[in-house]
Amino acid sequence: MHTIQEVLTEVMKRVKPSPEDRERVMRVVDKIKGNIEKAASARGLKLRIEVEGSLAKDTWVATDRDIDLFIIFPHGTSKDFAQEIGLELAKSGVGEGWRLGYAEHPYVEASVDGYTVDIVPSIEIGEGERPVTAVDRTPLHTKFVLKKLDEKMRDDVRLLKQFMKGIGVYGAELKVGGFSGYLCELLVINYGSFEKVLEEASKWKSRTVIDYMKYYKEGEAEQLFNSPLVMIDPVDRRRNAAAAVSLQCYATFIAAAGRFLENPSREYFFPPKEQVEINKTLEKLKERGSSLVVVKTGCPKLPSDVLWGEVQRSLMKAVGLLERYDFVVLDQKAWSDEERHVLFILELEMRRLRKGKVHQGPKVWYQEDVKRFLEKHLKGENVLAGPSIKGDRWYVELKRKYTEAKELLEREFAKLSLSKDMMEEVKKGFSVYVDEEIEELFIEEPRLLSEVNALVRKRPLWLK
Amino acid sequence: MHTIQEVLTEVMKRVKPSPEDRERVMRVVDKIKGNIEKAASARGLKLRIEVEGSLAKDTWVATDRDIDLFIIFPHGTSKDFAQEIGLELAKSGVGEGWRLGYAEHPYVEASVDGYTVDIVPSIEIGEGERPVTAVDRTPLHTKFVLKKLDEKMRDDVRLLKQFMKGIGVYGAELKVGGFSGYLCELLVINYGSFEKVLEEASKWKSRTVIDYMKYYKEGEAEQLFNSPLVMIDPVDRRRNAAAAVSLQCYATFIAAAGRFLENPSREYFFPPKEQVEINKTLEKLKERGSSLVVVKTGCPKLPSDVLWGEVQRSLMKAVGLLERYDFVVLDQKAWSDEERHVLFILELEMRRLRKGKVHQGPKVWYQEDVKRFLEKHLKGENVLAGPSIKGDRWYVELKRKYTEAKELLEREFAKLSLSKDMMEEVKKGFSVYVDEEIEELFIEEPRLLSEVNALVRKRPLWLK
Q1: A459 contacts in chain B (CB < 8 Å)
Q2: Distance separating alpha carbons of residues B63 and B29, to the nearest angstrom
Q3: Which of A110, A136, A162 is the last residue of a domain?
Q4: Does a structural domain hold residue A2?
Q5: pLDDT digits over B188-201, tens only?
Q6: B200 and B225 in one domain?
Q7: What is the 8-class DSSP label of residue B436?
Q8: What is the DSSP pairing of strand A341-348 with strand A291-298?
Q9: Based on the number of CB atoms within 10 Å of its own CB, is B190 exposed (0-12), middle (13-18) or buried (19 or more)?
């Protein structure tokens, strides 16, 4: 058992960038900046290039490999011009191997010397103008955070980010539904330190509203936003900076925070590597007696957040289908390499149901309903037993259409109303694997094994 | 398809006693009466012997073989004297082979020339005195019914009784929970005819109150009695003559009445004999995929109604036990020959459950509850997976104590809080049979086969 301070000192050594870390990233930044400036002056353009994100705020974690650069055109530049020329300049900044990304605005994403570099064209907003998009807000976030954080607090942000990473709730992208870097910064600003954040979070109830700037009156913000966690953005009172945080991530953070304070350990920050073995995972599943069904299909070419939105919706449609046919879904998870495969992993209480299904009819005194019910079921082909009276009602036992989850998915999955993109992939083909059949999937896609293992184990790695 | 009149005419031929039927029963009555009178005058006693029940009211069905005789001591006779001497006289009336029965009062029951004869000692109640027991009321019932029924109506009572017998709801004893003969008479008196009774009953809703004598104000009787059917006894306003009618019998009568009026058929009165085959019954069960479990134990020596009360309560305890361990009980039935065996027949959705069972824990923000939950389950031997967070809650998957219904019953049935009498039998021994194992029970007890067959078929025989 270690004290919190011992743990944090040890973690800090790994999360705080060393002078060498800083030098290395600045070399990459300077190179790209130089390229863009050269290209700009060749066109006779006057603009600023600014580092944004955690690098600008000095809240990055040593192992991060992200660089955010903004090409800022002067106030009054036309949007079309800024976008077109901005992307041209961005591309000349990174050379080969870029791709276009889209959030609210297009930007250039590239891999340079091991870093993921995002270059975003934007236009300076005038004094007093309201930020409208994420791109507009970014420089304001940087300014605000720089003003509010001292060095100790910046280190606490690094600890908090690493803690979130360790327990699997870091990242506002749909795939995670967790806490953004900016949200981590705001939490430290609001509560004062890493430890304070955890202490307060461990006491969070079903909903938490933080309005650091006191924009709203008591109870007002609760009404306006409906996520479990509401963090009014200090630079934009209409925005919830924690809107991405799902109930699952919110609850996980609360639980992990409370547990960590009682049992501090570095494993919250750096979860131990698991030795995952196919046989043991399948054996464990067999011991529990539940069944795993995996639906595999192709991956539509879509921006990550759009993809994950469609994947999650498709997963819930698969769950709905199974439940409509009386299968009990214990757990579900989607997985994708965002390139070739989308997999829907479903854990069922049982993969096979009995043939008969009790169907409740009307109470005996609703004469017209009874007439219809008996007419339908007295000669019905699908009747296995009854109709019969139990208590004050008619019942009948009908034959199920599907008794095997695999068959149900094989026959009905492609009939679900999935998104157009997912539908196209499913139409091209999909396969269903049950229990021991999943083994062949692991061979094809080894990364799946740890996903399935986590689903079978269920216990988070930080929980001891 | 026959008309109602065709069906009733045919049924009437079988239910109305012929002159020969009447002669035969009166010979037996006269013989017993003679014996008792002789014994009474030998003791110098002056008393009346009266035929009661359906024989006295001439509402008996030709196939009935019941004789009710009352030995009536004069008003003012002491209760002890009447009981002691009354039973002595009763015994001398029937010779060998009697046994003592108990309802509210002791009486002598004997089998004479193929008839079941009940001889009840009683004391004449004075003018204006209120009847207190069933024995006191019986002569009043007879008087009332004789006054109200003409010959046509008496025949309608016979039809109604036979209808009730055919659909399995005749008899106020606990084993049946159905309609007594007196209740059938009151229904015909109230509605006027057999057909009228069925027409009105087919329109009965969740509760029906009949107050022929208009003893109560509108809505008053509903408050006082809470059975589904309330028939205020014309000779005793404090008594519900339909108190024995269970919801099951009430609903069955409503349903059968409605169905009969639409599809009249003699099968409601005389259900067809089923050809029951062990193999077909077990095959049918297998096709539906449910499981049958039978618990067999000895039969305590108890008066029938007491026995069935205890048997039904024990059955419900067995259902409760199975449900407590997550088995889904689809249907249940007790059977007894009232001599040697009591059998509890339980139909289960599945006889085997998976090893794991999801156990819901507290929401993450109830810190103290979470602490206790995690302490209990982090090192718990019975944990198969988790603890884990899903949505805003902790869950854990535990090992079930029992995955087989048979094992559960074998280990826990004797620990249930059954009645003292049942407990004694269970302690002496009980066996549990599942699915194909039941076959050996059929060989030992062939009457069980039609019980099990009805439970598997579920559809009442009258329902076409």
Answers
A1: 385-388
A2: 16
A3: A136
A4: no
A5: 999 999 999 999 99
A6: yes
A7: G
A8: antiparallel
A9: middle
The nearest CA of chain B is from the CA of A167 a distance in Å of 12
* CA B107 centroid distance within chain: 21
Using DSSP's 3-state secondary structure scheme, residue A29 falls into: helix
Q: What is the CATH number of the domain that holds A303?
A: 3.30.70.590
**Residue B73: what pLDDT?**
87
In contact, A164 and A156? CB cutoff 8 Å: no
Of A173, A240, A251, nearest to A209 (Cα)? A240
Q: Which residues on neighbouring strands pair with residue B333, listed in sequence order?
A: B345
Boundary-marking domain end, from A136, A157, A181: A136
Q: Do the chains contact at A247 and B374, CB–CB below 8 Å?
A: no
Q: A253 and A362, same structural domain?
A: no
Structure token digits, residue B427: 């302690």
What would you report as the CA-atom Rg of chain B, rounded to the nearest whole angstrom?
27
B151 or B139: which carries more pLDDT confidence?
B151
Q: Strand B208-210 to strand B341-348: parallel, antiparallel, or no bridges (unpaired)?
A: unpaired
Question: Is residue B428 assigned to a domain?
Answer: yes
User: Domain check: are A97 and A34 in the same one?
Assistant: yes
Answer whether the bond into residue B446 is a cis peptide, omega within 30°.
no
Whichever domain contains A163, its CATH number is 1.10.1410.30
Q: Do A202 and B290 touch (CB under 8 A)?
A: no
Report CB contact under 8 Å: B392, A205. no
Number of separate domains in chain B: 4
Task: Let me know whether A35 and A84 are in one domain.
Answer: yes
| HEC sequence for A404-462 | EHHHHHHHHHHHCCCCHHHHHHHHHCEEEEEHHHHHHHHHHCCHHHHHHHHHHHCCCCC
What H or E segment, with its residue span, contains residue A232?
Answer: strand A229-233
* Number of CB atoms found within 10 A of residue B236's CB: 17
Tally the residues of chain A.
Answer: 464
Tokens of B26: 């009166």
Q: How many CB atoms lie within 10 A of CB B50?
A: 17
| Domain contains B343 | yes
Residues B288, A202: C-beta atoms closer than 8 Å: no
CB atoms within 10 A of CB B85: 19
Stretch B199-224: mean pLDDT = 93
- For residue B384, the enclosing domain spans 356-399
For helices A181-191 and A151-167, the axis angle rounded to 10 degrees is 130
**Closest C-alpha to B408, from B350, B340, B343:** B350
**How many Cβ atoms are within 10 Å of A257's Cβ, its own excluded?**
22
Same domain, B260 and B373: no
Asked if residue A234 is part of any domain, the answer here is yes
CATH code where residue B379 lies:
3.30.70
Mean predicted confidence (pLDDT) in A393-408: 96
Task: Clarify whether residues A315 and A433 are in a common domain.
Answer: yes
Q: Are B349 and B290 in contact (CB under 8 A)?
A: yes
Percent of chain B, pLDDT > 90?
Answer: 63
| Candidates B259, B386, B456; nearest CB to A458 | B386
Best residue in A363, A374, A392, A400 to probe B by mutation, most B CBs within 10 Å?
A: A392
Domain identity same for B317 and B446: yes
Specify whether the CB–CB gap between A441 and A342 falls below 8 A: no
DSSP A333: E
Looking at the fold, whether B197 and B284 belong to one and the same domain comes out as no
Per the rule left: phi > 0, alpha: psi between -120 and 50, beta: everything else, A378 is alpha
* Contact criterion met (CB < 8 Å) for B251 and A463: no
Helix axes B19-42, B79-94, angle to 10 degrees: 120
Q: Say if residue B454's pLDDT is above 90.
A: no
Beta-strand ranges (E) seen in A26-114 are: 48-52, 66-73, 98-102, 106-112
Give the domain CATH number at B82.
3.30.460.10
> pLDDT digit string (tens) for A348-376?
999 999 999 999 999 999 999 999 999 99
Q: What does the alpha-carbon distance between residue A415 and residue A407 come to, in Å, rounded to a whole number?
A: 13
Show the DSSP H helices in A58-101 as ranges: 79-94
Identity of residue A228: P
The predicted complex's ipTM stands at: 0.88
